């Protein structure tokens, strides 16, 4: 991504944001005695910690549903919340690209665990320059291999609860493996030549590798880089050549690029449908039917199957 | 019956709290070459700008033909000081002279053959027709002054108001400009000039006003430029004054 | 019709949209540059953020027309404050622009941060709005851009004489009855509209760059306002097309910044290469002038030396020409060789023995020297008798006084 656009001038957020952010109250983490507070960065990670921690921990999630973790910049209030946690859990592999400095400094005082960093590198997808695609939660089995890191971290924080954590972890891993099998079956119902997933950014590569779907995003692995015209043209060619029936938008990324794809395909006589909205970098909020990772993955797969298998 | 061609009545102008003009009373009834003379900072330019509505009046009124400036704009031609303009601006001499015709054209109409002929005639009168297409930055000081004069001529006004037209212009060009102004006076126009040089003032103007924040004296040149009046206006700001005053009183040409 | 000339549909749409923005930005930017307010577009672009965030806060929705309306309101408000600051306080132009830009942008950032911190659904990434998404322009976007751009250009063409007058001499305009403040506001409004409409398509950086760079480039090529505007619009279009072409050929290259780079290249080329005002042309002219003068002086010196004893040596000539420094010596050598090349001097017949350093004036050289002496003498007289006229016509390549119309001492046609 040679000419990525970067948001210059937003360093002022620190100066101005300090005064104002204090005026915008938000979820207060529980303080003092009682269950320890664990601060998680994304909704996906928060879900993981809750699944393993159960009632013994209170999880405070920094980024709400629908927020893009690639571009999220912390306000001083966030820094405050992070430092009040007894443990900080992040996703890792540079998903929270703009928080790395803050987390690095925090690690001197508070335990910080980046769950995906614990995965063996051979199992990861590279994006060049010793960087790896961070969207590992889309492969349920791969994500289950992050569970031990959470168990270790919680066990160190709260040794009395270790047995409980290990039990819940084993149960969760089992559920993830079952989910993995189910998803694979569902995807298999799509005719093979139709298994092309076109989305706004390259979040689904692990998904594609695990469940046998060819995955193409308009933007690269990070949403920070603006899409180029050559990329759009290439994708339109692909859509037309492979007769892709539907393209998908994401909950945390702008729709514009996908809209341009559909128009380009339409100009060449292919009416490409908008297959639906996928949860990519974030889970859904309350009532969305995708509050946990399991729900989100299942919901995504149903949307994909409906879009690609149905119709022509 | 219309009032005097130009009339200042009890005019006071202040920049902030400091007065620049104080109780100016002045009337000019007939076409003539009228000079406004005084030391630096006396408020001479301010008199012109106040007359043209470019600076606000703290008190008093200024009338042209008995009417306020806004009602008779089309009859007043203005030649500002040279430094007010960016000479690197991409316009030619002719373009600038045509600007004198814009007020008559009104909104959105472009200058036509009539306006272009008027511009050509104005340029001929000031002797600039051979540089008509030159960009204005490539002119000498005297030529630049004459461009502004030609623009005012193109306004075809009844009263011309010039702010230090001879500043930084060599003697030869000054003569030429003065001749154009005399022709205007002979054709029945009133020409009001803010001028800095006493010597040439004595030679050129029919009537003068001596100004130093207040009006010291005004009337026919010889009557006004007496040593006594000059002393009261310049108050020691000019050494050559007595010499000059005596020379003027003797009616000598002080070339 | 999905492709023209084999070009993909999306490329055509993006090219059309960005070219329209480039054209209108170039035109309206020219007026800003002439009016000495080149950064108005920048201020407007930065001021849009608070309007976008505000529109979202008020309605909870992100429909494009709604956000654009919010952007337009805040841009107009900021520019209004800018104009008032200039008129009513004694703030300088550049300081006022910087203040307005900084404050409005700061307000925008604060509002967006507040939205994110509250976790308001749909509020993520509002500041992305400022970056635009050039490559993802749809046909509808392009049509809107083309329509607005055409409107802006038409208004400017209609009122060209009014805006030129106000930009050139606002005092004269006011004195002759033109509503200068109104015209200024109207110009500022056009800039705001352009910027706002160009934002989602092209982004803030691109729009403000296209408002400043093509006009300055165009100025290098012409001394007429109309030509400058037309050229500026054309440069905007050219930058757009080049940027789009490169972006369409090379993967992973964002379109917007490439257009800006293309514009910058056009400017650099104009700055160096334009005849007249260009850097290279000025260097060459300066050199030519110096060379002409040096050669002329050398020729006169040669004539002087030859008159003394029929021929001259190179060394003697250097003495007569009073060559002192190394630089002067280099210039002398170059001029001497030039005189030989032009057959004005030639080696004298060898008077025997060794390498003769003996030269003489040719017949042509003698004529040229005589002519130069004649002109010099005439000009010297003129400078004494009619200095004003002389100064207006005399140039360093010594034209014939009679040819440029300065007759014997009378100075011009008056």
Order of helices and strands of chain B: EEEHEEHHHHEHEHEEHHH
Count of runs of 4 or more consecutive helical residues of chain C? 16
Q: What share of the residues of chain C does DSSP label as strand, in percent? A: under 5%
| Rg calc of chain B | 18 Å
* Assembly state of the chains shown: heterotrimer
What does this structure look like?
- Chain A has 2 domains: 12-175, Rossmann fold, CATH 3.40.50.1980; 184-309, 3-Layer(aba) Sandwich (Rossmann fold).
- Chain A contains 11 helices and 8 strands.
- Chain A has helices at 12-21, 43-53, 76-84, 100-106, 140-144, 147-157, 162-188, 205-211, 229-242, 256-267, 293-309, and strands spanning 37-40, 58-61, 87-90, 112-114, 196-201, 214-219, 246-250, 273-278.
- In chain A, α2 packs across α6.
- The longest helix of chain A has 27 residues, at 162-188.
- Chain B is α/β, with parallel strands linked by helices and 255 residues long.
- Chain C has 2 domains: 9-277, ABC transporter involved in vitamin B12 uptake, BtuC, CATH 1.10.3470.10; 281-393, Orthogonal Bundle (Arc Repressor Mutant, subunit A), CATH 1.10.10.
- Chain C is built from 16 helices and 2 strands.
- A two-stranded antiparallel ribbon of chain C has the order 1-2.
List keywords for this structure.
heterotrimer; A: 312 residues; alpha/beta; Rossmann fold; 4-stranded parallel β-sheet; two-stranded parallel ribbon; 11 helices; disordered N terminus; C: mainly alpha; ABC transporter involved in vitamin B12 uptake, BtuC; Arc Repressor Mutant, subunit A; two-stranded antiparallel sheet; 16 helices
Write the layout of secondary structure elements.
The complex is a heterotrimer of chains A (312), B (255) and C (414).
Chain A: H1 12-21, E1 37-40, H2 43-53, E2 58-61, H3 76-84, E3 87-90, H4 100-106, E4 112-114, H5 140-144, H6 147-157, H7 162-188, E5 196-201, H8 205-211, E6 214-219, H9 229-242, E7 246-250, H10 256-267, E8 273-278, H11 293-309
Helix pairs in contact in A: 2-6, 6-7, 7-11, 9-10
Chain B: E1 6-15, E2 18-28, E3 33-37, H1 44-51, E4 59-64, E5 76-79, H2 93-98, H3 102-105, H4 113-126, H5 141-154, E6 159-163, H6 171-186, E7 190-195, H7 198-204, E8 207-212, E9 214-220, H8 221-224, H9 227-234, H10 241-249
Parallel strand pairs in B: 3-7, 3-8, 5-6, 6-7
Antiparallel strand pairs in B: 1-2, 1-4, 8-9
Chain C: H1 9-34, H2 40-59, H3 64-88, H4 93-118, H5 139-158, H6 160-168, H7 170-175, H8 180-202, H9 204-219, H10 225-249, H11 255-273, H12 279-309, H13 314-320, H14 326-341, E1 345-347, E2 359-361, H15 363-385, H16 387-393
Antiparallel strand pairs in C: 1-2
């Amino acid at each position: 991504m040679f000419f990525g656009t970067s948001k210059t001038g937003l360093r002022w957020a620190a100066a101005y944001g300090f005064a104002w952010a204090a005026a915008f109250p938000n979820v207060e983490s529980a303080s003092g005695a009682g269950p320890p507070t664990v601060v998680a960065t994304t909704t996906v990670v928060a879900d993981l910690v809750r699944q393993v921690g159960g009632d013994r921990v209170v999880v405070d999630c920094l980024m709400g549903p629908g927020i893009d973790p690639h571009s999220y910049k912390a306000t001083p209030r966030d820094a405050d919340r992070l430092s009040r946690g007894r443990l900080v859990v992040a996703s890792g592999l540079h998903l929270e690209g703009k928080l790395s400095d803050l987390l690095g400094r925090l690690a001197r005082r508070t335990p910080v665990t980046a769950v995906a960093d614990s995965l063996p590198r051979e199992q990861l997808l590279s994006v060049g320059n010793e960087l790896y695609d961070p969207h590992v939660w889309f492969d349920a089995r791969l994500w289950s291999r992050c569970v031990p890191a959470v168990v270790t971290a919680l066990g160190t924080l709260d040794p009395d609860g270790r047995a409980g954590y290990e039990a819940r972890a084993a149960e969760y891993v089992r559920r993830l493996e079952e989910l993995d099998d189910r998803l694979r079956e569902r995807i298999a119902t799509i005719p093979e030549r139709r298994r092309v997933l076109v989305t706004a950014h390259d979040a689904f590569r692990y998904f594609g590798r695990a469940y046998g779907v060819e995955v193409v995003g308009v933007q690269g692995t990070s949403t920070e880089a603006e899409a180029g015209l050559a990329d759009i043209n290439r994708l339109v060619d692909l859509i037309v050549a492979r007769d892709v029936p539907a393209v998908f938008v994401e909950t945390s990324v702008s729709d514009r690029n996908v809209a341009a794809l559909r128009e380009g395909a339409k100009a060449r006589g292919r009416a490409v449908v908008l297959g639906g909205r996928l949860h990519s970098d974030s889970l859904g909020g309350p009532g969305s039917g995708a509050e946990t990772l399991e729900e989100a993955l299942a919901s995504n797969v149903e949307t994909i199957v409906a879009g690609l298998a149905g119709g022509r | 019956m219309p009032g005097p061609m130009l009339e200042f009545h009890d005019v006071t102008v202040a920049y902030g709290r400091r007065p620049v003009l104080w109780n100016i009373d002045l009337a000019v009834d007939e076409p003539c070459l009228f000079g406004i003379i005084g030391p630096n900072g006396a408020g001479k330019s301010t008199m012109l700008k106040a007359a043209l509505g470019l600076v606000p009046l703290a008190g008093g009124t200024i009338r042209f033909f008995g009417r306020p400036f806004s009602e008779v704009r089309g009859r007043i031609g203005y030649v500002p000081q040279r430094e007010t303009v960016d000479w690197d601006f991409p316009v030619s001499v002719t373009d600038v002279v045509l600007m004198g015709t814009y007020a008559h054209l009104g909104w959105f109409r472009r200058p036509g053959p009539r306006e272009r002929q008027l511009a050509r005639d104005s340029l001929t009168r000031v002797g600039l027709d051979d540089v008509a297409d030159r960009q204005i930055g490539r002119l000498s000081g005297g030529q630049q002054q004459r461009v502004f004069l030609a623009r005012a001529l193109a306004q075809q006004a009844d009263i011309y108001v010039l702010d230090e037209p001879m500043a930084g212009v060599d003697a030869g060009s000054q003569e030429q400009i003065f001749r154009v102004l005399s022709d205007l006076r002979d054709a029945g126009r009133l020409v009001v000039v803010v001028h800095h040089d006493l010597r040439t003032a004595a030679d050129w103007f029919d009537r003068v006003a001596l100004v130093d924040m207040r009006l010291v004296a005004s009337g026919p040149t010889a009557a006004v430029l007496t040593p006594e009046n000059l002393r009261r206006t310049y108050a020691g700001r000019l050494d050559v004054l007595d010499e000059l005053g005596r020379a003027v009183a003797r009616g000598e040409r002080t070339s | 019709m999905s492709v023209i000339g084999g070009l993909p549909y999306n490329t055509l749409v993006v090219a059309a949209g960005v070219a329209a923005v480039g054209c209108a930005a170039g035109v309206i930017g020219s007026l800003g540059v002439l009016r000495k307010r080149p950064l108005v577009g920048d201020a407007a672009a930065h001021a849009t953020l608070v309007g976008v965030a505000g529109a979202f806060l008020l309605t909870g929705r992100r429909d494009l027309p709604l956000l654009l309306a919010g952007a337009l309101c805040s841009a107009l408000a900021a520019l209004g404050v800018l104009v008032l600051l200039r008129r009513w306080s004694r703030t300088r132009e550049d300081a006022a622009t910087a203040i307005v830009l900084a404050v409005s942008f700061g307000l925008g950032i604060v509002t967006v941060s507040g939205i994110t911190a509250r976790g308001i659904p749909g509020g993520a990434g509002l500041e992305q709005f400022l970056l635009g998404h050039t490559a993802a322009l749809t046909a509808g976007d392009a049509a809107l851009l083309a329509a607005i751009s055409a409107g802006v250009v038409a208004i400017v063409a209609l009122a060209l004489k009014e805006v030129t007058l106000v930009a050139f001499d606002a005092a004269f305009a006011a004195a002759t009855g033109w509503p200068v403040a109104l015209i200024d506001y109207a110009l500022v409004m056009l800039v705001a509209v352009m910027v706002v409409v160009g934002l989602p398509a092209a982004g803030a950086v691109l729009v403000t760059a296209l408002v400043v760079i093509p006009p300055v480039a165009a100025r290098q090529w012409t001394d007429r306002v109309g030509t400058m505007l037309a050229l500026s619009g054309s440069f905007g279009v050219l930058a757009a097309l080049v940027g789009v072409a490169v972006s369409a050929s090379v993967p992973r290259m964002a379109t917007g910044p490439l257009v800006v780079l293309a514009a910058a290249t056009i400017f650099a080329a104009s700055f160096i290469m334009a005849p007249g005002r260009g850097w290279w042309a000025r260097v060459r002219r300066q050199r030519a002038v110096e060379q002409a003068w040096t050669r002329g002086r050398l020729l006169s010196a040669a004539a002087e030396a030859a008159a003394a004893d029929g021929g001259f040596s190179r060394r003697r000539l250097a003495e007569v020409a009073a060559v002192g420094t190394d630089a002067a010596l280099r210039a002398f050598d170059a001029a001497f060789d030039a005189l030989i090349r032009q057959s004005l001097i030639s080696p004298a017949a060898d008077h025997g023995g060794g390498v003769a350093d003996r030269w003489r004036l040719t017949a042509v050289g003698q004529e040229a020297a005589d002519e130069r002496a004649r002109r010099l003498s005439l000009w010297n007289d003129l400078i004494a008798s009619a200095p004003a006229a002389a100064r207006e016509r005399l140039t360093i390549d010594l034209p014939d006084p009679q040819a440029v119309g300065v007759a014997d001492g009378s100075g011009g046609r008056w």
